[in-house]
Each structure stands twice: as structure tokens, then as C-alpha cells.
Design brief:
This is Leucine-rich repeat-containing protein 2. With about 375 residues, this protein is of the alpha/beta class. About 25% of the residues lie in helices and about 15% in strands.
């Protein structure tokens, strides 16, 4: 008996496979359309985008607005460029700090400046912070090349009169120390551009001699005990930034409009009951921040959205300190609290500056942590 051979028409087999291929392609197309409409694909895209941003160290606030994630490639490129620019700036600042013309000192182990410092009169910058140093020595007058005196968060209680001999000084930061007065000789530093005396808590006035500082563009005297805007400040004709928040002001001078170059005016945490109409004469003013709890009268034009001025009224909401259940209460120092509050408001103000408009109202809640 011979072999049996099955004979098929090849065209039948070909037609069968072509039909199956067509059905598979139709299914793939339908599945692609379904995925395109599906929220899962969007979620996957956003997840991959967020993972990429995290990998590159990009903060969430940069790509998440009001709960929505912007997966735009342009945004990612823009954020990367900004991040690189910031990193480059930090590297430049670090290199600058490592310069032989810059002196740095930090740490509570320091109670006085090293003796060798008086021999380094070529220095142009001092950056001294978070030490227990109380006195700036009189030999500071030898540093005639000094440009920047950055002395925040120390225990300094007195500035020597010799500081007035630093004719090239451009920046003085003595914030969060223990100063009760500023030497009138500082008025001789005619090239000074930035003055920060914030957070000393006990300053009540600035000497009239500071009226000579015609190059000053930035003054911060917040977190002190000023009862009025110092007369010398009103005579700083190039002043652009004035922070006198968290003091004891009950009113503003009627000649506040003498500050024709003023752009940013911070007044929050005072007890102002009204704002003078003279503020409307400050044509370059773009940001005004006050505490609204005591305000009963203000020029309506300040709230006019058609003007470039951003008017922010903070409604303070202090919380009373309540003891813990076990009766143990940890009180943070006044300076630490003021410093934290200042950093928080600084971040908020920077955010407000970037907005096209300000919120219709803002409630600022203060809180403390109890252990």
C-alpha cells in the first residue's frame, strides 16, 4: 500500500492567514485608539515626567501648578536651564568665597576674631555668621579695601566708630545680633548701597548722620522697636527697597513720598490704622505689604487693579501658646522665631512678585512646635 499525500489549495491557506493578519492589525489600531483616550496613558506619561524631574533634582513647585502637572518638554528644558544657571551661580559664588580677598568664619566655638586677621588688611569681604563674637575690633579701620561686611546671627552688641572710615564699603549686614544703636560715623561710608539691621529687636532709632548715604538702595530695619520711619531714611533719595515690618509703627510720615525711587515697601506686623494718600505719589512703587488687622482707612486707589502696584494686606492670626499635656513647654527664642518668620515672608513676597496679580486676601497663620 503506497503513501497517502494530502493535497491542499495554497490559495486557501494564504487567504486564511491574510484574514487573521487584517483582524490583528484592526485590533491593534483599536487598542491604540483606546489607550490614546484612556486616562491610564496620561497617568503613565505624567509619572514618567515626574520621575525624570525628580532624577534631575527639579522641585515639584516648578512643574506642578494648582494640582496639575505640565508635561511640556519646553518646560523641562526651561527648568533645566534655570537649574544649571543657579548651579553655575552657586559655583561662582563658592569660587568667589574661596578668593584670597574673602574671609569666612562660622561656628559657636568662636568667641572673638583670630589675632592673625589684623594682618590681612588686603581683604575685601568678611563673612562671619553663627558665632559667639560680641565685639568688632577697632582695627577694622585698617581694611580700606573692604566692600562687604556680612555679619549676621552673631552676638555683636556694639559697632566701633572706626567703621565710618571704610570709604569703599558697599554692603553692611548686622542682622540678628544684639545691637541697641548704630554709630553715627557710619554716615561717612558714602558708597554704602545696602544696610541690613533687621532682627536686633532693641533698635529704636538710626542716627541722623545716615542721611549722608545717598547711594543706599536697600534698607532693612525689620524686627526692631522703631516707633516711626527714621528721618535719615526719608533722605536716602535712591532708596528702592525699605523693610520696616515688625516694629511699633502707628502711622507713616506725610512726606513719605520723598522716597521717589521706592519700589518695594514692607510694613506688615505694625499697628497702622491708616495709610496716607502720599503713598499714591510714589510712582515707582510696585509692592506694598501691610498688616490689615488695624487698618480702618486707606486710599482706594491702592487696591485699583489697573495700577502696577501690588497691594497685599496680611491678616495676622497669632496662636496662643498652650502648654502640652504633660505640662512641659518648649519656647523658641524670639530671634529664632523672627528669623523663621522673616524667611517665610521673604519666600511669599518673592512668589507674589512673580504673579500677574495678588490674592484677594491673604491670611498668614503663625504657629510654633511644642515637644
Amino acid at each position: 500500500m503506497g503513501h497517502k499525500v494530502a493535497v491542499f489549495d495554497i490559495s486557501v491557506i494564504r487567504a486564511l492567514w491574510e484574514t487573521r493578519v487584517k483582524k490583528h492589525k484592526a485590533w491593534q489600531k483599536k487598542e491604540a485608539e483606546r489607550l490614546e483616550k484612556s486616562a491610564l496613558e496620561k497617568i503613565k506619561e505624567e509619572w514618567n515626567f515626574v520621575a525624570e524631574c525628580r532624577r534631575k533634582g527639579i522641585p515639584q513647585a516648578a512643574y506642578c501648578k494648582n494640582g496639575f502637572i505640565d508635561t511640556s518638554v519646553r518646560l523641562l528644558e526651561k527648568i533645566e536651564r534655570n537649574t544649571l544657571a543657579r548651579q553655575s551661580s552657586l559655583f561662582k559664588e563658592r569660587d568667589k568665597r574661596s578668593s584670597p580677598f574673602v574671609f569666612e568664619l562660622s561656628g559657636e566655638q568662636w568667641t572673638e576674631l583670630p589675632d592673625s586677621l589684623k594682618e590681612q588688611t588686603h581683604l575685601k569681604e568678611w563673612h562671619i555668621s553663627n558665632t559667639l563674637i560680641q565685639i568688632i575690633p577697632t582695627y577694622i579701620e585698617l581694611f580700606q579695601a573692604m566692600r562687604i561686611l556680612d555679619l549676621p546671627k552673631n552676638q555683636i552688641s556694639h559697632l566701633p566708630a572706626e567703621i565710618g572710615r571704610l570709604k569703599n564699603l558697599k554692603e553692611l549686614n548686622v542682622s540678628f545680633n544684639h545691637l541697641r544703636s548704630i554709630p553715627p560715623e557710619l554716615g561717612d561710608c558714602e558708597n554704602l548701597e545696602k544696610l541690613d539691621c533687621s532682627g536686633n529687636l532693641e533698635l529704636t532709632e538710626l542716627p541722623f548722620e545716615l542721611s549722608n548715604l545717598k547711594q543706599v538702595t536697600f534698607v532693612d530695619i525689620s524686627a526692631n522697636k522703631f516707633a516711626s520711619v527714621p528721618i535719615c531714611v526719608l533722605r536716602m533719595c535712591n532708596l528702592q527697597w525699605l523693610d520696616i515690618s515688625n516694629n511699633s509703627l502707628s502711622d507713616l510720615p506725610q512726606d513719605i513720598d520723598r522716597l521717589e525711587e521706592l519700589q518695594t515697601f514692607l510694613l506688615y506686623k505694625n499697628k497702622l490704622s491708616y495709610l496716607p494718600y502720599a503713598l499714591l505719589n510714589l510712582k515707582k512703587l510696585t509692592l506694598l505689604v501691610v498688616s490689615g488687622d488695624h487698618l480702618v482707612e486707606l486710599p482706594t486707589a491702592l487696591c485699583d487693579s489697573s495700577t502696577p502696584l501690588k497691594f497685599v494686606s496680611l491678616m495676622d492670626n497669632p496662636l496662643d501658646n498652650t502648654p502640652c499635656q504633660d505640662g512641659v513647654e518648649v519656647m523658641e527664642s524670639e530671634r529664632d522665631r523672627q528669623c523663621f518668620d522673616k524667611e517665610f515672608l521673604k519666600a511669599y513676597i518673592e512668589d507674589v512678585k512673580e504673579r500677574e496679580s495678588v490674592p484677594s486676601y491673604t491670611t498668614k497663620v503663625s504657629f510654633s512646635v511644642q515637644l
